[in-house]
Amino acid sequence: MTNQIAAHSSQRSYLQAANFLSSLDADWAEHVASVGPCRLQSKPVREPYEALIRAVAYQQLHAKAGDAILGRMQALYPESPFPTPEQMLAAGPDSLRGCGFSSKKATAILGVAQAAVDGVVPSLDEAHILSDAALIKRLVPLSGIGRWTVEMLMIYSLSRSDILPADDFGVRDGYRRLKALEKKPTPRQMREIAESWSPFRTVATWYLWQFPAKRPK
């Protein structure tokens, strides 16, 4: 029942956000109408520790490749839905490399696991009470964890409604195409442009991600 209530709440908020974006100008109205209702799906029960490790796993990989590597890692722990930080640290880098992770990613994953044990990576309950800025300040110093990764955590695990990952290629290129610009805006320009989309920047981000991979001729 709780999940159903949350789903209905998300649908209402997504509709409100879509209506707001459509009211901005004709370009937004046309794009929102073309794409249809927002279908963003978050995982609000996923702990930040797990979300960060998953984000590292998928960095610079296609979804299928990331799925395969994560699948091999989780197969090492058949009795656990997801390996705990302690299990990850006990396995060590060789086990992670054997699953297909690069040396750099293995180091980053073990760093996240150690940070979870040390209390640097917050629990889900604690993360919900931390501000966006506080989460970024706390997690970005970890190896392999940049601002974009923390923003994905805030979108997909914390279900925050006003996140705009300005460094994201898809966001910047989506806006270029929305406005038929010659060049993508810089991250700084993107942040400034998106200020007027608050408090619906997460849904705006999703719509900017929805442009097809190839620009229509």
How many structural domains in the coordinates? 2
Give Rg in angstroms.
19 Å
- Would you identify the CATH architecture of the largest domain? Orthogonal Bundle
Instruction: State the total count of DSSP E strands.
Output: 0
Estimate the helix proportion, in percent: 55-70%
Which class best fits the helix and strand makeup? mainly alpha
CATH topology of the largest domain: Endonuclease III, domain 1
Instruction: Specify the CATH homologous superfamily of the largest domain.
Output: Hypothetical protein, domain 2
Strand fraction equals: under 5%
Unreliable spans are 1-8
Secondary-structure element series: HHHHHHHHHHHH
- Tell me about the biggest sheet? none
Give the end-to-end Cα distance, rounded to a whole number of Å.
Answer: 47 Å
The general outline is elongated
For this structure, what is the CATH class of the largest domain?
Mainly Alpha
Task: Compute the average pLDDT.
Answer: 90
Instruction: Note the total helix count.
Output: 12
